Structure formats: C-alpha cells, structure tokens
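Reopening this ticket.

The earlier resolution said the output was attached, but the attachment link was broken on my side. Pasting everything inline this time so it's all in one place.
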Amino acid sequence: MFDFDCAPDRRNTLSVKWTTYPEDVLPMWVADMDFLAPQPVREALAARVSHGIFGYDFSTTALAEAVSAWLLRRFGWAVSPEAVLFTPGVVSTMNLVLRTFAAPGDAAVVFTPIYPPFLHAPSQQGLQLIPVPLAEDEQACPRYTIDFDALERALTPRARVLLLCHPHNPVGREWTRDELLRLAELCLRHDLLICSDEIWGDLALGEGTHVPFAALSPEVGQRCVTLMAPSKTFNLPGLGLSFAVVQNPLLRGRLAQAAIGTLPHVNGLALVAAQAAYSACDDWLDALRAYLTANCNFLLSFVRAEMPSLRVCAPEATYLAWLDCRHALDGQSPYSFFLTKARVALSDGAGFGAGGTGWVRLNFGCPRSQLRTALERMRDALRSL
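Inline output:
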C-alpha cells in the first residue's frame, strides 16, 4: 500500500538537506526523511489550500482529542486533552521550559553526546550546563547506558531541570522502563523538573515500544513536561508544530502564560496536517517503521561486512545511525573525510558534545537504493586509504 522505495527529486525545492551541499554530494545528514508525507495529510492540506484564505487560526479541541487518543492508542498513556499545549517547535518550547522553571544561574543537566540544541539551550536562557557523559559499553557494538554514579556526582544544588532526550539522538537508545524508573527516583530525590524530548517516540524500531517518562507514575507525571511532534513521525518538520504534555495544572498554567508574546501561534496548515496525521495515519506509520527497521538492518549488515574498521550503534529507535570512525581514520575528521572523499554529507559528531569527536551521524530515513549508494561510496573511500 505504501511505496517508500521511490522519492521525488528534492534538489529544486528549498530543502536545507538537499541544497546545502553541491549536487554531487549525497545528503545523509539533517533529520528529515526522503519520503512523501502520508496521503491523508497531503489531501487535508490540499483541501485547506484550495479554500484560499490563510488568516489567523487556533488549535481546536478536536486536535487535542486526536493527540490524546493517539497517546493512548500507541503508548497506553492516558492524557486528558486539556494537558496538551500546542507550540511551534520542540527546541523553542525546550527553551521556554528553561526560562519558565529555572532562574539565571541555575543549572540544567544533559547527557552527552546529544542533539546540539540541548547543549545551547541552557546558556541561551542564562543557565549553567551540567553535561553528564553517557557510559559506552565497549562489548556491545557499542551501546550506551546512563552512568547514574556520574550523574549523582555531577549534580549541584543549582541543578533545576533535567533535559532528557528519549529516545536519544544521536545514539539511538530507547531508554528501558528500569532505566527510566531509576532516573525518576533520582529526579524526585533531587527535586528536578524533567523536560523530556520524546519527538522520536513514535519511531521505535523492530518490535520495540516507547515508554513515556511521564507515564511511569502519577508522581513523575506531575513534575514532567513532555515534548512531542508529528514532524519526525510523518515527515512534517517544515510545517512547525509540536506539543507539550503537562499534566500538572500549575506547571501547565505557568508555561502557557510564559508562551504569550514569546512563541508564535502554530500556523493553520500545520494544525490541519496534525489533525489528519493523528487521526488517519496509523497504517502508514506501521509500514514506515517496518521499512526503517529493514533499512537499519541493511546498514548494520553492510557496515559490519564491508567497513569493519567502523563500529555502529544499533539504534533501538529513530532513523539515525551513530558511526564510530575513531579507529579507521587516524585522527582525521570523519565528517570531512566522507564529504571530500565519498561525496556523502553526514552530521559531524563533534557538534554533539563530549564523546562525539571521531563519530558521524547518518540518516537512513530514505529509499534503500539511496542508502546503498551512500554506504558504497563510504566503503570505497575507506578502501582508498
């Protein structure tokens, strides 16, 4: 029913992904997919555009109810529609959370390596950054875990907020319930607010399932702001819509008040697209997850067989592969090497904070033929050394 093997040419659009580099470079970097958005979304947008007037729009109760039903259907998480606040983006909302619930001089905790906006948001709001390196299990391909001892040692009396990336970008971990429970106990003991970015939660791979942090217990839910969006799930990042689930009414009121005059309203086309996505696209998402899982398996097999000098984290969620090139390039920047020698653009791991140097992030949210071409170019470049 869904053809993910064929993608339209994006070179002649305003795509950041496809126009940043010269035409002979294959872009496998920024996190949008080279797939059409679901048909129900495109039809809903076409109908809205045909109306021809684009005035000010507001989110509807129907959309909040659709999101609430989605969270229950996909994760077993019962959230009232009133707990859902619509915002124009996860990163801007993360910054708003820090501004609202911490004071200048307070500190925010992040696990590194991590998506770069997590590293920048605290200083942008006058806060200190407490980076806590994830533990790298050298025996497991590799695989990352939370170093709870290091986390406890790093916490200061000024720590107010934990910025959690769940599932984690770039290492691909879907944190387990046991890991989340241990993290929750620590947050409760140290009186930390949790801002949990769960934008990748819909994209668990294989038979994996996502456990929302706030769903662990009512007590945890009362001190958690969960950030989600249809952007990664349905390939809609350019429309600019996210939402915050805030079950504590006092926190929700403060966040909503802080957004006034700070965050713009979500645009009407994004609202229409989200309504269609959360109401009529379950089958499409199930098919997408199966395709991404097959892409992931192909990538893992290819790297292990054809590029044994590299190591790759086996992602449990997302469409991002985290590649360890430290033993292959003798100190060279892998980002620069593959861009120059393979004409493949990847995300430079050095920008993801401590532990990222010598790594690159590869986006496999694309037709398999495109993924194969990129990997073959990278293999040939390594063989030329």
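Reporter confirms the inline version is readable. The domain at 16-37+283-383 is CATH 3.90.1150.10 (Aspartate Aminotransferase, domain 1). The mean pLDDT is 97.
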